[in-house]
Amino acid sequence: MEKHIYTSLNKIEAINEAKKNLVETEKNLIITELETSEEKVTIEVIEIREVLKFIENYLKNILSNIGYNSINIEITNKDTVPTFTIYSENDALLIGKSGKNLNALQTLAYASLKKELKQPFKFLVTISDYKEKREKSLIKLANNIAEEVRNTKIEAKLDSMNSYERRIIHNTLLNNKYVYTESKGEEPNRYIVIKYKEEK
């Protein structure tokens, strides 16, 4: 991943120099301030396309090392978050039970990128249409359990989920009149409890 260093009298001038040299807009750059003094400011600049290429190559290498040689990776933007969709000859094995292998792959990619970047960078890794199917399944689960909690007035504890899956549950029930959600526990075993809203 190519990193560019720029030093100028202030941060704005340094950023403008980076934009001019790289022929890029600021939204397509990851800018980290390295050093600031009264005389100068030094920034590190990485193009987002370089970051995407780094993630794609990392995924290809790790999958090749475990025997997946015939894969395709499609990069799209979902809600401004880069999504890497992997198409392979054995999607089920890559996904694993309840997405365990897929989550592990994403965690490894995050860890590798974290070593290179000095700030967080959000992205998603999915296999074929797994995330879409999983999202529909979680929405259905949330609504079904919410209805049970509404009828019984007894709170329900869901299985542990990653932050992406928990967010789907929270968002699904955000405006529900009868129940509300809470996240509990510690990562990686954090889970959601769906509770009945007591009448006031």
- Average pLDDT works out at 91
Number of helices: 6
Give the overall shape, derived from the CA principal axes: globular
Largest sheet entry:
3 strands, antiparallel
Structural class of the helix and strand makeup?
A: alpha+beta
The helix fraction, in percent, is 40-55%
The H-and-E topology, N to C, reads as EHEEHEEHHEHEHEE
Radius of gyration: 22 Å
Spatial order of strands in the largest sheet: 1-3-2
Count of distinct strands: 9
Spatial separation of the terminal alpha carbons? 57 Å
Unreliable stretches, pLDDT < 50, 5 or more residues? Answer: none
**Percent of residues in beta strands:** 25-35%
Give the oligomeric state. single chain
TL;DR?
It is built from six helices and nine strands, in the order βαββαββααβαβαββ. With 200 residues, the chain is α+β, with helices and mostly antiparallel strands.
Notes on the protein architecture:
It contains 6 helices and 9 strands, in the order βαββαββααβαβαββ. By secondary structure, the chain is α+β, with helices and mostly antiparallel strands. The chain has a 3-stranded antiparallel β-sheet. The radius of gyration is 22 Å and the shape is globular.
Task: List the defining traits of the structure above.
42% helix, alpha+beta, single chain, 200 residues
Write the layout of secondary structure elements.
Blueprint (H helix, E strand, L loop, with lengths): L3 E5 L2 H12 L6 E8 L4 E7 H18 L6 E7 L2 E7 L3 H5 L4 H17 L7 E4 L2 H23 L3 E2 L5 H10 L6 E6 L6 E6 L4
Parallel strand pairs: 5-6
Antiparallel strand pairs: 1-3, 2-3, 4-5, 7-9, 8-9
